[in-house]
């Protein structure tokens, strides 16, 4: 075995010996749990393995924190797959096996209850809790809390904004219907007109639907996370989604659209409106500087006249794994990675919105992160996605039932959702 | 059921040694032979039983429980509830239907193409070695690799096939085109294997018989239908049995091509999703058991219904 | 064939040659396509051309500098070799017994192997996941090697016993006459004669282990034991927006190389192995 991959990773020697022992013993009773990438770090100190999705420039944040740790520990950034489902699948599988190789976990905001309920992540108590709570925006904080306990530190938040071209529409639409009629007008004039949303069968569709439901004052799941509700607001939201999907201004590949593909379509100049996360701004400036001058943002359109939209909160929270062997260092590392300074760096360089309110007031932000006010405005009254340990099941059911969006029949779809969601919440249904 | 299958197979297998049977008293040498036989077979038998027999029983035990790794506190014995849940779920039957459709269509196409390929490999006047060599490539190639090749081929803009066949569309985002591509990928990969099995059968068709038929004025087609096919029947049935069971397990191609989106999940994909993504060991195990039973039924039907002799069973005749 | 005249033969040859071409195209196009993708530059990756317009080795350079891939390749090679070795040794023993010895329980063994050959692998995923999780075998080499051996055994038992029947067993008898025990006869006389069959079986078993995806993706979670087919589906690309198609293709080509080598050098053996273990009507 040792010859198979000579000297790639330090510290592998010990592990391969352990494998051999396990092999020799066959089904050895509780062979030493397998360590992932837990080699001895730089100067023989502790290694803190951070598992988090790909974020441009996050390595720089890690290095800054390593410099601060001054050799007490060294953070290693392990990149998870690009898509949320893939990230969760990888972490969950390892946690289910009690793998001690992960210390800090980058959790999508919707996963806190699931990971906490399963006992996979440590509670943030005492000083750690106080440190995280001070100055952090209440919306993001709520996503890290379960049953009154704090289980993660909000690293960055995210809200979708309405992105539009002010050379096509001088004033942004206030409501969903207004947006559709503006786009239809543009189509009649032969101008770029498409309305882009994340409509593929995945979490992005669920986030969009959540936003529409919250904007319509409805509920998908009861606040305590135990009952499928699907009230009138939720039905109204289904109708809005269907209207877009069956409208001539929908992207023909709507049922396949994810964040990145609609970003491309917008940059290609085919579309007039895009509902997407703020990362699109930096990208537009880089890829299409001439179009960027007309690329403007506004709060998410509402679905009821006179009511502003309530955008679903996205983003990532940092949690400490129960199976970590270096918990104090892991907490410290997590706090450093989400410190005000780190958040400012990430906001400016990677476009991810901070969770600490003070960062928004930083003078550097005004110029480099111009949409910060719109984001902050949305964050004051956001839609939080259902808080339930069965979120993943619920989300899978929602994205399946809503796909393709053009096939929605509001009342019927709502009834089906209610039934299947209830099964999902009781963890007794079959996942599609 | 499995016993019957085993007997069906083995009853003929033992004819290998038929003449030596029936000796009332075991000589010392006989006993040594016995011991050696057991000794030699024991490791293989133990491994096979330990890694399949025990888990399938354990799987059945798990399937009787409510057991979601995310709710460790809620683990309890619930009898057959999981079976009711799965068997009344529209998703399960959709996946079952998809699997059945993929199995039937791909095996049917493979049989025809495989027969043609087998005839080419068997009869080619030129390049027989070449044909045999290249057809082994689909057989040997890692399924995931081939699946990626098909995926990229059918991705708009990136692929050479997507714009050729359906300009402007994205075939892998629609249900029927996705299923067609999955079947295509399956057929491409396994036709050569089918052809090899059939070729083995073709080799047994006596040339004299074909010549005699030709003398009697039978056309090539008549010779194929009247002479070749009947002789090959056992080979065809075995090939069909193996490919049917194999196709029913379809997983790799779907995982890479669509990952079950647009209702293209097979039962294997669905079991995997419920287990690994949903971490629901109860439901996941229930699906495992149901898949196992289905496969057993298919095998049983082949053996009893069509009288398929399993490979190895005909070994007596070859000595 | 004697019936056919000389001039007709030429025409027939041309027709056969055409058929050959069809088969070659059928078998090679998907393979060549992934090869082509692996040599494309990032900006020409999405041009849809079957032949790259700009050639580059960058994708190969990238994957061989990624620990994720290098370790997966090591895992693939190590796990497949170990599983093959064990499965062939155990299979040889059992096949010898089946082909040569008479003992009660033989039918059962043949039956069990056959059942396993038809066993739906996915049915084992949930119990193995749970068992290996408890035993600490999850995400280890032995955790994959065990199921691989199990599913490779029927293949090797069938193929090997078919080969063993072709061996001139009189030699064994002669050795026994000279006073060798059955065990000695097996080791000294028969084993060398059986080597070609064993070698062929090893190739088939190796291809099987090399190919597996279901277990590889279910019973591993990190690069500690993840094999290439599973790792391929987890490739992330170096930044958030980079499509990893180039790296995936390059990695795919790398793991196809051994298959091509086997096929080119051992075509006859593989065909013989696959057909002998199967049907002889």
UniProtKB/TrEMBL annotation, chain A:
Keyword Protein biosynthesis set for record: no
InterPro entries, sorted: SBP
Signal peptide: 1-36
One MF term in the entry's GO annotations: maltose binding
Gene3D superfamilies: Periplasmic binding protein-like II
Entry superkingdom: Bacteria
GO cellular component, one term: ATP-binding cassette (ABC) transporter complex, substrate-binding subunit-containing
Any GO BP annotation: maltose transport
Pfam families: SBP_bac_1 (PF01547)
Keywords on record: Signal, Transport
Listed CDD domains: PBP2_TMBP (cd14750)
Family: Belongs to the bacterial solute-binding protein 1 family.
Protein name per Swiss-Prot or TrEMBL: Sugar ABC transporter substrate-binding protein
Organism: Gandjariella thermophila
From TrEMBL, chain B:
Keywords: Membrane, Transmembrane, Transmembrane helix, Transport
Listed InterPro entries: MetI-like, MetI-like_sf, Sugar_ABC_transporter
TM ranges: 36-61, 91-121, 133-153, 179-204, 281-303
Keyword hit for Zinc-finger: no
Pfam family, one: BPD_transp_1
Protein name per its UniProtKB record: Sugar ABC transporter permease
Location in or out of the cell: Cell membrane; Membrane
GO CC terms: plasma membrane
UniProtKB/TrEMBL annotation, chain C:
Entry membrane topology: Multi-pass membrane protein
Record-linked SUPFAM superfamilies: MetI-like
An example Gene Ontology CC term for this record: plasma membrane
InterPro entries: BP-dep_ABC_trans_perm (IPR050901), MetI-like (IPR000515), MetI-like_sf (IPR035906)
Assigned keywords, A-Z: Cell membrane, Membrane, Transmembrane, Transmembrane helix, Transport
Transmembrane feature ranges: 16-35, 77-99, 108-129, 141-164, 185-208, 245-266
Gene3D superfamilies: MetI-like
Subcellular location: Cell membrane
An example Gene Ontology biological process: transmembrane transport
This protein's record includes keyword Transmembrane: yes
Domain of life: Bacteria
Domain ABC transmembrane type-1 span(s) in chain numbering: 73-266
Family recorded in the similarity comment: Belongs to the binding-protein-dependent transport system permease family.
Protein name: Sugar ABC transporter permease
Species name: Gandjariella thermophila
């Amino acid at each position: 075995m040792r010859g198979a991959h000579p000297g790639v990773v330090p510290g592998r020697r010990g592990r391969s010996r352990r494998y051999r022992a396990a092999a020799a013993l066959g089904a050895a009773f509780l062979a030493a749990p397998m360590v992932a990438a837990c080699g001895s770090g730089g100067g023989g100190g502790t290694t803190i393995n951070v598992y988090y999705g790909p974020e441009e420039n996050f390595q720089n944040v890690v290095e800054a924190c390593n410099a601060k740790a001054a050799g007490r520990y060294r953070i290693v950034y392990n990149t998870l797959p690009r898509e949320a489902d893939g990230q969760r699948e990888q972490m969950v599988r390892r946690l289910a096996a009690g793998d001690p190789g992960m210390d800090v976990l980058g959790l999508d905001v919707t996963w806190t209850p699931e990971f906490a309920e399963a006992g996979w992540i440590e509670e943030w108590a005492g000083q750690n809790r106080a440190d995280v709570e001070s100055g952090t925006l209440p919306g993001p904080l709520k996503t890290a809390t379960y049953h009154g306990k704090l289980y993660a530190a909000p690293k960055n938040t995210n809200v979708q904004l309405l992105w539009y071209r002010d050379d096509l529409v001088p004033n942004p639409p206030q409501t969903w219907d207004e947006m559709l009629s503006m786009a239809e007008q543009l189509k009649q004039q032969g101008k770029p007109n498409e309305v882009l949303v994340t409509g593929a069968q995945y979490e992005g569709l669920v986030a969009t639907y959540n936003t529409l439901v919250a904007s319509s004052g409805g509920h998908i799941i009861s606040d305590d996370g135990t009952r499928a509700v699907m009230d009138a607001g939720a039905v109204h939201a289904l109708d809005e989604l269907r209207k877009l999907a069956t409208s001539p201004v929908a992207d023909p590949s709507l049922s396949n659209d994810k964040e990145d593909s609609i970003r491309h379509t917008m940059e290609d100049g085919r579309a007039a409106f895009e509902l997407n996360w703020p990362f699109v701004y930096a990208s537009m400036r880089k890829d299409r500087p001439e179009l960027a001058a007309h690329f403007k943002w506004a709060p998410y359109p509402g679905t009821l006249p006179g009511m502003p939209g309530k955008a679903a909160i996205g983003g990532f929270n940092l949690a400490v794994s129960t199976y970590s062997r270096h918990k104090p260092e892991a907490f410290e590392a997590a706090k450093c990675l989400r410190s005000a300074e780190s958040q400012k760096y990430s906001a400016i360089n990677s476009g991810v919105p901070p969770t600490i309110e003070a960062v928004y007031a930083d003078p550097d932000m005004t110029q480099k992160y111009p949409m910060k006010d719109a984001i902050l405005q949305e964050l004051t009254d956001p839609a939080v996605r259902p808080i339930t340990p069965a979120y993943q099941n619920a989300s899978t059911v929602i994205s399946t039932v809503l796909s393709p969006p053009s096939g929605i029949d509001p009342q019927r779809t709502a009834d089906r959702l209610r039934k299947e969601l209830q099964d999902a919440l009781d963890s007794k249904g079959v996942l599609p | 059921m499995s016993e019957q299958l085993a007997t069906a197979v083995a009853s003929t297998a033992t004819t290998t040694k038929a003449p030596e049977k029936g000796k009332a008293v075991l000589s010392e040498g006989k006993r040594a032979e016995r011991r050696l036989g057991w000794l030699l077979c024991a490791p293989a038998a133990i491994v096979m039983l330990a890694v399949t027999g025990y888990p399938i029983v354990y799987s059945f035990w798990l399937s009787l429980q409510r057991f979601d790794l995310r709710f460790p506190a809620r683990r309890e014995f619930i009898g057959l509830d999981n079976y009711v849940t799965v068997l009344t779920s529209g998703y399960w039957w959709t996946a079952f239907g998809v699997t059945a459709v993929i199995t039937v269509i791909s095996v049917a196409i493979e049989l025809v193409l495989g027969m043609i390929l087998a005839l080419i490999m068997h009869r080619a006047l030129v390049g027989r070695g070449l044909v045999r060599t290249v057809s082994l490539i689909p057989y040997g190639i890692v399924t995931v690799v081939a699946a990626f090749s098909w995926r990229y081929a059918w991705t708009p803009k990136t692929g050479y096939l997507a714009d050729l066949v359906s300009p402007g569309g994205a075939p892998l985002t629609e249900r029927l085109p996705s299923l067609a591509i999955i079947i295509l990928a399956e057929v491409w990969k396994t036709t050569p294997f089918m052809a090899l099995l059939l070729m083995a059968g073709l080799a047994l068709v006596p040339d004299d018989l074909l010549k005699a038929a030709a003398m009697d004025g039978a056309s090539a087609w008549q010779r194929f239908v009247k002479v070749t096919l009947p002789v090959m029947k056992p080979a065809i049935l075995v090939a069909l049995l193996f490919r049917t069971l194999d196709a029913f397990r379809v997983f790799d191609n779907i995982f890479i091509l669509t990952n079950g989106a647009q209702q293209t999940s097979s039962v294997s994909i669905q079991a995997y999703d419920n287990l690994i993504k949903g971490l629901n060991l109860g439901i996941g195990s229930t699906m495992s058991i149901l898949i196992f039973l289905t496969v057993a039924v298919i095998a049983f039907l082949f053996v009893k219904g069509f009288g398929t002799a399993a490979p190895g069973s005909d070994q007596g005749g070859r000595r | 064939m004697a019936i056919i005249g000389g001039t007709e033969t030429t025409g027939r040859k041309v027709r056969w040659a055409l058929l050959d071409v069809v088969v070659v195209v059928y078998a090679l196009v998907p393979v060549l396509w992934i090869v082509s993708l692996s040599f494309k530059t990032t900006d020409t990756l999405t041009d849809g051309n079957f032949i790259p317009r700009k050639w580059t080795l960058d994708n190969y350079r990238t994957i061989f500098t990624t620990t994720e891939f290098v370790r997966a390749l090591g895992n693939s090679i190590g796990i497949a070799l170990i599983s093959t070795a064990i499965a062939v040794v155990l299979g040889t023993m059992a096949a010898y017994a089946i082909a040569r010895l008479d003992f009660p329980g033989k039918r059962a063994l043949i039956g069990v192997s056959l059942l396993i050959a038809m066993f739906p692998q996915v049915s084992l995923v949930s119990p193995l996941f749970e068992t290996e999780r408890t035993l600490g075998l999850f995400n280890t080499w032995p955790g994959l090697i065990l199921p691989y051996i199990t599913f490779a055994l029927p293949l090797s038992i069938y193929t090997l016993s078919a080969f063993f029947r072709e061996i001139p067993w009189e030699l064994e008898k002669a050795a026994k006459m000279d006073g060798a025990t059955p065990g000695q006869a097996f080791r000294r006389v028969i084993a060398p004669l059986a080597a070609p069959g064993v070698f062929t079986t090893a190739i088939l078993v190796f291809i099987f282990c090399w190919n597996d995806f279901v277990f590889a993706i279910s019973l591993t979670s990190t690069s500690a034991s993840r094999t290439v087919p599973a790792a391929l589906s987890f490739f992330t690309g170096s930044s958030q927006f980079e499509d990893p198609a180039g790296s995936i293709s390059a990695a795919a080509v790398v793991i196809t190389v051994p298959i091509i080598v086997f096929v080119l050098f051992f075509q006859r053996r593989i065909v013989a192995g696959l057909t002998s273990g199967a049907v002889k009507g």
